[in-house]
Amino acid sequence: MTRDLSIVLIEDEPAIARNLEYIIREIRPAARIIKVLPNIKESLRWFSASEEVYDLIFSDIRLSDGLSFEIFRKIPLKKPVIFVTAYNDYAIDAFRNNGIDYVLKPFDKEEIHRSLTKYEFFLLPVQKKSPGSGLCCGSCNPLSKFIKNPFSSITAAG
Fold first, then answer.
1. CATH number of 6-140
2. Cα-Cα-Cα-Cα dihedral sign, residues 94, 97, 101, 105
3. How far is Cα 122 from Cα 142, in angstroms, rounded to an integer?
4. Which residues, including other chains, have CB under 8 Å from residue 117's CB and lie 6 or more apart?
5. Modified residue 4-aspartylphosphate is at which positions (predicted)?
6. 71: left (phi over 0), alpha (psi -120 to 50) or beta
7. How do beta strands 66-67 and 6-10 pair?
8. How far apart are CA 131 and CA 152, in angstroms?
9. What is the C-alpha separation between 123 and 80, in angstroms, rounded?
10. Which helix (H) or strand (E) holds 6?
11. What are the DSSP calls for 98-154, one per residue?
12. What are the extents of the domains in the chain?
């Protein structure tokens, strides 16, 4: 039995953070949002001190105190990130900082669903196939025999 998906949100706009959390829980009811971080300063403090286990990060890029890439440059987080931003000019930086998807605001449920499905298909080692989910066990992903944990050796460029 696998544990539920644990997610950290980095978002400085409370209404957007609540909306994203609502959509994630609607799509994946078992998912847990373990922390919502509103800025770089609090993110650096939390990631440096927390021993909480998490699987995935959803992150805005432009925060009240700078660009979220600063977090990933200062702390070598080895977790995938789905960037959710109003700006389309940061995609290259996003993918250089463990980005697995880039969602433009305003987002909708379908876009977040697509991002979560992408994460699950490519990064979860074993999936139980459920009718209509489009997901299967890791062995039916043609890349699974080559990729154990693609983020285990990636560090942010800095």
1. 3.40.50.2300
2. negative
3. 10
4. 134, 135
5. 60
6. alpha
7. unpaired
8. 31
9. 9
10. strand 6-10
11. TEEEEEESSP-HHHHHHHHHHHHHHH-S-----TTS----GGGSTTTTT-S-TTSS-
12. 6-140
Single-letter residue type at 93: D
Instruction: State the amino acid at position 82 in one-letter form.
Output: I
- The tens place of each residue's pLDDT in the chain, 158 residues long, gives 356 999 999 999 999 999 999 999 999 999 999 999 999 999 999 999 999 999 999 999 999 999 999 999 999 899 999 999 999 999 999 999 999 999 999 999 999 999 999 999 987 765 444 444 444 444 444 444 444 555 555 555 54
